[in-house]
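Dear V.,

Thank you for sending over the compound details. I've combined the ligand you provided, zinc ion, with the protein sequence from our construct and run the structure prediction for the complex. I'm sharing the raw inputs here so there's no ambiguity about protonation or stereochemistry in the SMILES, which I know was a concern on your side last time.
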Amino acid sequence: MFMDKLRRFMYGRYGSDRLNFALLIFGLVLSFLASIFGFPPLNFLSYVLYLYAIFRMLSKNIPARRKEYHAFLKVWTPVQKWFRIKKTAFLERKQYKYFRCPNCHQYLRAPRGRGKILVTCQRCRKEFNQKT
Ligand SMILES: [Zn+2]
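Below is the predicted structure of the protein with zinc ion bound, written out as structure tokens.
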């Protein structure tokens, strides 16, 4: 009954995506910082973010919301990739040395303890020496 009404209400509306989730998380972080530092404008900003997330969720202008989401992904995807590589490099720090190709900046890894080795980048085929 309630779910039917909710489904009918949400029909033709944008709903949620990762940008909404990011807005809510960022809002929570801001209100947490506001309570730590006793700085109310941050709290106000967090409410603005929550309202924007709700507005996006209920919006019927789906193309505009998609455009915002793609703009968000353009910024967020490289950040997420960087964090993922740093996490993997940390977890595998005893087995592998992580480094970047000097030519194309691709992340590469090599087993540790092999001394100085000749590395061939898998993306651009550039060869360079790397200490492991
Ligand atoms: Zn390369």
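A first observation: The chain is about 60% helix and 15% strand.

Warm regards,
I. M.
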